[in-house]
Amino acid sequence: MVRLSSYAALLSGFASSMAAGIPTRRAMAVHDERELPVHFANVGTPSPDTLMNLKLALTASDMAGLEKTFWDVSTPGNALYGQHLSFEETKVFAAPTTDTVTAVTAWLNENGINDITTTGAFDDWLAFTVPISTANSLFEAEFQNFTEIGGPTQLIRTLSYSLPVDLQQHINLLHPSTDFVRNIKGPIFRASVPGSSLNNTARALTAPSSCNSVVTPACLQDLYGIPTTPATQTSSKLAVSGFIEQWPQTADLKTFLGSLRTDISSATTFALQTLDGGSDPQAARDAGIEANLDIQYTVGVATGVPITFISVGEDNTDGIDGFLDIMNNINGQIAPPFVSLLIFSSYGFDEPDLTSTMANQLCNAYMTSGTRGVSILFASGDGGVSGSQSQSCSTFIPTFPSGCPFLTSVGATQDVTETSASFSSGGFSNIFARPSYQTTPVATYLTALGSTNSGKFSTTGRAFPDVAAQGVNVEIVDGGEAGLVDGTSCASPIFASVIALINDRLVAAGKSPLGFLNPFLYANPTAFFDITTGDNPGCNTNGFPAKAGWDPVTGLGTPNFASLLAAAGV
């Protein structure tokens, strides 16, 4: 029982608070929390006056409806297959409701936050800047300074934050908050190509043995039957994303084409799109191995397809190297910007670096693009079963975005008689469930695998990669010098170029582009060269063995252009 005098005091205090404009504290609940990742250390508390640029992701009005539509337009045999949505049609599903925007804005306003910017493809993010002391109070968080152990990454993050109970239905996540992403590593360039003078010679119908040591566009044309006939449809485009100040050089592309694609003009180039302060400086010292690789093996393989390089600069606050910003940019363009969009790794992360809320946010952004007919591909990573890069581990580490079921993950092979590349990352997501298009082939593989590596991976997660292509001894030009690179980041532009050329034929025939690829790919497993040898070691194991059919090293296999083209109906 509360005595009258105490009750009066409480009322008096409440009245004083209301008079002073201090709102009643809402009931709060933890919205996201995690353990400190092993690759980071807490190095102290930042000044409470330190300003933080924060964003709240608002819930979509009908994400379930958008996903259903995504599967309808992406699945062969469905009555809606290929009937991709317009921007306005997508916005009906993806934009937050007025009630959501109003409710969240009111909460920020009542806490003195009035300078709010609406951002995102569908006005689905609210951005604002507050001191850390305010962020800690508002979200019941404890933002700290963290540093990557043995690495350069410095972050201000929290291991937990809360939201008002009555707003959790309106907010997906706070960002940045609980994601700990390390700097991305790229492929290694080996100069002085053995036995190569950058001269393209006549090739037999089957790739010559020289392709075992040096892979060129001609090798790929021979291995996969990729045509040299130029594309004809300017509306069928391929985009290459660039991050971490990786810049392709037009001089290097000219040398590459002049030596290895003598049948097309060496003046063939690419368009440039920038965001977040991105650029493409052209001094030789600015050459980027990853960017040169990506451009040379799209311009040089997807003959005649218009190529755009999207340079994402460092002026972003998403903390994950612009991955959010580029998807907001793509999804926010009114006209479908690209018939085939390629975003690929070395640009990728270990799945544990991101919380499940952020992984789902990005994954849904890729799904949103798929409803509009965009194909998205990522390299699977270069650490075998140990993640995006080789590292110590006791259980297998899946990579992201490859674990997202709404995109196509590309592994790597090597040699003319193809076998899997040992670094090719593959496995099973711990966040995303297995999609229906994988049910039969993955079950078949797991049955054949038996008890091997039991307990080291999820047997129910989304499996990756989906497909593969050459990824060892791939020749590029960087800074005016010929060299070789390895990685699944070689395989991804190669496979994307195959899809771009097929889309060109589809558009020329008056048909829709393929859009999200996986239901089509898994429905046509015989359109691939099956890779049945090799494995992907890591975590003190031999990893997963390649087997007949789908496997978590090379997926369905490498592309047979003629068979894929026939399966697409052109």
Provide a descriptive summary of the structure in words:
This protein has 570 residues and is of the alpha+beta class. It has two domains: 26-59 and 96-175; 216-567, Rossmann fold, CATH 3.40.50.200. Helices cover 27% and strands 20% of the residues. The chain is built from 14 helices and 26 strands. It has helices at 4-19, 63-74, 87-94, 98-110, 132-139, 217-224, 250-260, 289-299, 323-331, 356-371, 439-449, 488-508, 518-522, 561-567, and strands spanning 28-33, 40-44, 51-58, 117-119, 125-131, 144-148, 154-157, 160-164, 171-175, 189-191, 238-242, 271-275, 307-312, 340-342, 349-350, 377-379, 399-400, 408-414, 419-420, 427-433, 461-464, 467-470, 474-478, 481-485, 528-529, 558-559. The strands form nine sheets. It has a four-stranded antiparallel sheet with strand order 4-5-3-9. The chain has a four-stranded parallel sheet with strand order 12-13-11-14, with helices on both faces. Strands 16, 18, 19 and 22 form a four-stranded mixed sheet that branches. Helix 8 links the parallel strand 12 and strand 13 (307-312). It is globular, with a radius of gyration of 25 Å. It is found in: Secreted, Extracellular space. Secreted tripeptidyl-peptidase which degrades proteins at acidic pHs and is involved in virulence. Ca(2+) binds at residues 530-531, 549, 551. It catalyses: Release of an N-terminal tripeptide from a polypeptide. It is an enzyme of class 3 (hydrolase).
